[in-house]
Write a structure and sequence with these properties.
The complex is a heterodimer of chains A (311) and B (287).
Chain A lengths: L21 H33 L17 H7 L2 H33 L5 H13 L2 H11 L6 H8 L14 H26 L3 H9 L5 H12 L1 H16 L3 H7 L10 H11 L3 H32 L1
Helix pairs in contact in A: 3-7, 3-10, 4-7, 5-11, 7-10, 10-13, 12-13
Chain B lengths: L1 H9 L4 H31 L3 H4 L13 H11 L2 H32 L5 H12 L7 H10 L6 H5 L6 H11 L4 H9 L4 H12 L1 H17 L2 H6 L8 H12 L4 H21 L1 H13 L1
Helix pairs in contact in B: 2-15, 4-15, 5-9, 5-12, 5-14, 6-9, 12-16, 14-15
The chains are: A mainly alpha (311), B mainly alpha (287).
């Protein structure tokens, strides 16, 4: 098709339409792609734009009228201690779960790849939590964290270590939810790192061995780690985006408590929007959430670009 | 300790053996920790209340209480209904996602048309937006249409997957153009090409996407929580929460039995089609 068509420049330009069948191709393409494009706007892009517009109004759910109030919702947010608490909690959750689950995922991937036996079994064991229903498993964790008969406290007690009511203690509740988040994220990170490790050319290791890097650590430092860079950036970004979306465990185990110690952005958004019916304020919270996710994607692209230029 | 390890590593004959042992010890104990919640869940679902709340933990029950727990779980909550809802909703969503995404992906990958770049830009833009962002306007729209608390409310917002479009487009780009020329010479329409030429070649990508769609939509809690109040419409995760609320978190035996029943389908699906799951995630991540 490329050789017989005159369009090097702009597909679908006026010249391109003179190609026999080009007009029919236009029609066919729109018939095929049109429904999906319309639906994308209807279900995703339109509502996302709607959230931004809604955040500039004073609308409460079911109210007969709506007024434009500019950035007042964001001003209210600035003075809202509950918002700052949610944001702090979300960032603390991300700061705890992302490095831990990425490091563990990498460690497991390296350990699995360093040998040849039982690879499939180990991969399956670590990946199982990724596909399992988090909500049902959260209830299991709730029991495991039970203050008197939970297995966590039984084990800690047997070792003579201090115990606590993990999900009811404001100092440990967010940490406990983070443990559940890490448990579910490690397997996904492991699989992504395994793919990254497989992509490293074997002869690089041979070249490094000739240069005298024959210990495991030297091979890791001089070949694996630098070659894994792009995969690492990717894994960190998607883990961080998924961590920002933490909601299920908060909603079912702690309801943001005790004393707002586990209130996170999405949980506060749902509370404001669907319990207190303050749709516009909830929309403003959604916009802040979206801004953080976009910031992460932007940072990822910056990092990968720099690598591409200088790496 | 460090010295001893170093010395052992110097002894060439011991080193691989020791390392293999260490590798298995680490991976097996960490792997056990990963599946411990599943073991705990099944273990509790077999025990009597007295044993569950005793300070001693045994993996297997001293007195089997499985029948009581599971029959209570099924009697108190329509668990089969929850599972059926999960199946209906995930199947309907995937079907719609495939029906809309495949033709669009084909047009984006293989046809020349005005608006192709713009449409692809919309897809890329959509990829940046987390699924919770459009929730409030979608909720308002469904409310205006009187569709809240229905299967439509569960299915429609997920009927389009920009991720699916993107994934299939990347895959379709690798299909040779000659295949399309041959089909066109045979008089096949563009619509026919999508379903009779492209679809069969795209099966691996479609299966990968289907599994991801299944895992996501079966497990999704955020959206069903917002739009569904009726018990008979609850998807599996929402059903577990209804159960938990009804029992006020004290009746652990039946609760864990219910959790086991709700978790089982995906765990079994994963164990059966493990390779497909893991390859699917890898494929979609690499693209």
């Amino acid at each position: 098709m490329r050789s017989d068509s005159p369009l090097r420049h702009n597909p679908g330009s006026a010249q391109g339409l003179q190609r026999p069948g080009a007009q029919a191709e236009q029609w066919a393409a729109w018939l095929l792609a049109g429904p999906a494009v319309v639906l994308t706007w209807l279900m995703l892009l339109g509502p996302a734009a709607g959230v931004i517009l809604l955040s500039l109004t004073d609308w409460t759910f079911g109210a007969p009228e709506l007024n434009w109030i500019g950035l007042d919702n964001y001003r209210e947010m600035w003075g809202d201690t509950a918002f700052w608490q949610s944001l702090r909690n979300t960032l603390a959750y991300v700061a705890f779960t992302v490095p831990t689950s990425v490091a563990l995922g990498l460690a497991v991937a390296l350990l699995i790849e360093s040998g040849s036996s039982l690879k499939g079994l180990y991969r399956a064991l670590f990946f199982l939590p990724v596909t399992s229903t988090l909500l049902a498993m959260a209830l299991v964790f709730q029991f495991a964290f039970h203050p008197t008969v939970g297995i966590v406290n039984l084990a800690l007690g047997a070792l003579g270590l201090p115990t606590t009511d993990w999900l009811k203690n404001p100092d440990t509740a967010l940490f406990s939810l983070g443990v559940i988040g890490i448990w579910q994220a490690v397997g996904l990170n492991m699989v992504l790192f395994l793919a990254g490790l497989k992509a490293i050319p074997k002869d690089l290791y041979e070249a490094a061995a000739i240069d005298g890097a024959d210990s495991g650590w030297e091979r890791f430092r001089r070949v694996t780690w630098p070659m894994l860079g792009p995969a690492l950036v990717f894994v960190v970004t998607i883990t961080a985006i998924r961590s920002f979306q933490v909601f299920d465990t908060v909603a079912v185990l702690t309801e943001g408590g005790p004393n707002k110690a586990t209130s996170v952005l999405l949980y506060q958004m749902v509370q404001e929007g669907f319990s207190f019916l303050r749709s516009a304020y909830a929309a403003a919270l959604t916009c802040i959430f979206l801004a953080f996710v976009l910031l992460l994607t932007w940072a990822q692209n910056r990092l990968l670009d720099r690598r591409a230029h200088y790496g | 300790m460090a010295d001893a390890l170093y010395a052992l590593r110097k002894t060439r004959r011991v080193r691989p053996w020791l390392f293999a042992g260490l590798r298995h010890a680490l991976l097996a104990s960490a792997g056990l920790l990963m599946i411990a919640p599943f073991i705990l869940m099944v273990s509790i679902s077999l025990k009597s209340p007295g044993e569950i709340f005793s300070p001693e933990f045994h993996l297997l029950p001293q007195q089997w209480h499985a029948w009581e727990n599971y029959s209570t779980a099924f009697a108190k909550q329509p668990l089969l209904r929850y599972l059926a809802n999960g199946l209906i909703v995930t199947a309907a969503i995937f079907l719609m996602q495939a029906i809309f995404a495949l033709p669009c992906a084909y047009a984006l990958a293989k046809l020349r048309w005005r608006g192709r770049e713009t449409s692809f830009l919309f897809v890329l833009l959509g990829l940046l937006i987390p699924p919770q962002v459009p929730a409030i306007p979608l909720y308002i729209g469904l409310w205006k249409l009187g569709l809240l608390d229905s299967y439509s409310a569960l299915i429609l917002p997920s009927s389009i997957s920009v991720f699916g479009i993107f994934l299939m487009r990347q895959f379709f780009r690798t299909v040779p153009d000659d295949l399309l020329h041959a089909a066109r010479l045979d008089g096949m329409s563009e619509f026919g090409i999508v379903w009779r030429v492209m679809l069969p070649t795209a099966m691996p990508a479609l299966v990968a996407f289907g599994l991801l769609s299944l895992v996501w939509n079966w497990n999704d809690f955020f959206w069903p929580l917002l739009v569904v109040q009726s018990q008979h419409l609850a998807t599996p995760p929402l059903g577990v929460v209804f159960f938990n609320n009804a029992e006020a978190g004290t009746n652990y035996g039946p609760l864990m039995a219910a959790a086991t029943v709700i978790t089982a389908p995906l765990v079994i699906a994963f164990l059966v089609a493990q390779r497909w799951f893991i390859d699917g995630v890898t494929m979609t991540a690499v693209k």
